[in-house]
Amino acid sequence: MSTQILWYASRATGAVSLVLFSAVMVLGILTAGRKGSSFLPRAAVLRLHRSLTITSMAFLAIHIVTAISDGYVSLSFLDAILPFRSAWEPMWIGLGTVAVDLMLAVGITSALRRRLSPSAWKAVHLSSYAMWPIAVLHGFGTSGGDGTSPWMIILDIVCIAGVLGALAVRLRPDRHPDSVARQAATTAHPRESIGAGR
């Protein structure tokens, strides 16, 4: 495979990874700790979240392998695991490595979720909120890619707007898990809720 094809593959899979991970973030933010709806049951939400995550990781793996293989810059597989040791753009490549390490931690603990305490799993899973913006910065700052090209900036803006919009919806007082639980209890047992309020 030619160096040019590998280079374009690395750029394309990096952009696709950003879109997919942004979709994973939006879905996770909007559905965390909540039941499904009649349109999309809870089990379907979890399957969709898991499938999007696995697909994102596959594209990310291709992004890393093609970036290392194309030979345009000197990168090794250790550079993809150990942060800030790359000879080429150590800051921006290092941010990408940190994002990969956080993603691996989330993925591994999710696979082992039944063997972990809920608090330990949740603590690691919350690192997704750090992983995603770090990955965005990696893509924006790496000069060998399309980080500052107009189409990539537009893609960044759309992904950032999507995640921030999901956070805004999630942080609304009526969307707080306690409020949702109270509303569900009122709907399920309206008389008990009236009696409890007296």
Automatic annotation (TrEMBL):
Residues 178-198 are annotated as: Disordered. Keywords: Membrane, Transmembrane, Transmembrane helix. Pfam families: Ferric_reduct (PF01794). It is a multi-pass membrane protein. The chain crosses the membrane at residues 12-32, 52-72, 92-112, 124-145, 151-169. Residues 13-135 form the Ferric oxidoreductase domain. GO terms for cellular component: membrane. InterPro entries: Fe3_Rdtase_TM_dom. This is Ferric reductase like transmembrane component. It comes from Nakamurella panacisegetis. The lineage of its organism: Bacteria, Bacillati, Actinomycetota, Actinomycetes, Nakamurellales.
